[in-house]
Design a protein that fits this description.
The complex is a heterodimer of chains A (94) and B (147).
Chain A lengths: L2 H12 L4 E5 L8 H16 L4 E4 L3 H9 L7 E3 L13 E3 L1
Chain B lengths: L5 E5 L3 E8 L4 H14 L4 H22 L3 E12 L3 E7 L26 H8 L2 E5 L4 E7 L5
Antiparallel strand pairs in B: 1-2, 2-3, 3-4, 4-6, 5-6
Helix pairs in contact in B: 1-2, 2-3
The chains are: A alpha/beta (94), B alpha+beta (147).
């Protein structure tokens, strides 16, 4: 997560939606900077009374989140399809 | 000479590598080390654990030890045997106080966007030790039979 992380950060800051779902099903590795970005997005959503959902993290990515104690902070959706409307009518997905 | 910014010397199960102290050199150095580990039979979970710990250590060395200055260098030594993977990374910086790095609340949760690298390295490797005041880090992972 280098260029991709910065792209996601810029995209998120330029959008009006209060809530966001980030689908990590294609993410096989994540570093501290990537985890920091997820925390940024989570805090941004909270500040805007929105919701930030991490969808489909691999067991290994989830393990890193547990190691850094983020499992108890972030909201997860491990299902096949997440309905954006259930968290916010103005949500965006990435 | 391999990729730009690197010099490499490889013996049976030891790799010595020098990279320039700017962030653009990190990915090539990391990949060169991971290629070497793969050649030594490192695979699966021990490989991906080492990959992430290595990435964090290299980024710290370049950004904090070298101040992202390409005139500085980071020296890496990687040794693999049947018992362990040992990676030593030395930067030219003055080191740092490792206990003061993360901004962590009383419950251990860090809600800043930085300060997780050392947690990750400690969680993924069996031993993480600093020497020379923090300017040299040794990452060690015991080898485990692959299932």
């Amino acid at each position: 997560m280098g260029v991709e992380a910065e792209t996601l950060r810029c995209l998120a800051s330029s959008r009006p939606e209060r809530s966001m779902v980030v689908d990590l099903r294609q993410v096989h590795a994540i570093d501290a900077a990537g985890l920091g970005l997820l925390v940024d997005l989570h805090c941004r959503a909270l500040e805007n009374d929105g919701v930030f959902i991490v969808a489909n993290p691999s067991p290994w990515v989830r393990r890193l989140m547990a190691l850094t104690k983020l499992e108890s902070v972030l909201q997860f959706d491990d299902g096949a399809g997440f309905e954006l409307a259930c968290c916010d009518e103005r949500a965006m997905s990435a | 000479m391999h990729d730009a910014g690197q010099t490499v010397e490889s013996r049976a199960s030891v790799l010595e590598l020098v990279l320039t102290g700017d962030s653009t050199a990190v990915a090539a150095a990391r990949d060169r080390i991971m290629d070497f580990l793969e050649e030594q039979g490192v695979a699966g979970e021990e490989a991906i654990d080492t990959l992430v710990a290595l990435q964090e250590a290299l980024v710290n060395a370049v950004l904090h030890g070298c101040k992202n200055d390409p005139s500085q260098v980071v020296r890496c030594s990687v040794e693999v045997d049947a018992e362990a993977i040992t990676i030593v990374i030395k930067d030219p910086g003055e080191g740092f106080e490792t206990a003061a790095v993360a901004d962590v609340s009383d419950d251990g949760i860090n809600l800043t966007n930085h300060g997780r690298g050392i947690f990750l390295m400690r969680g993924l490797m069996d031993e993480v030790t600093y020497s020379h005041g923090g300017s040299e880090i040794t990452l060690k992972k015991q080898r485990r039979p692959q299932l």
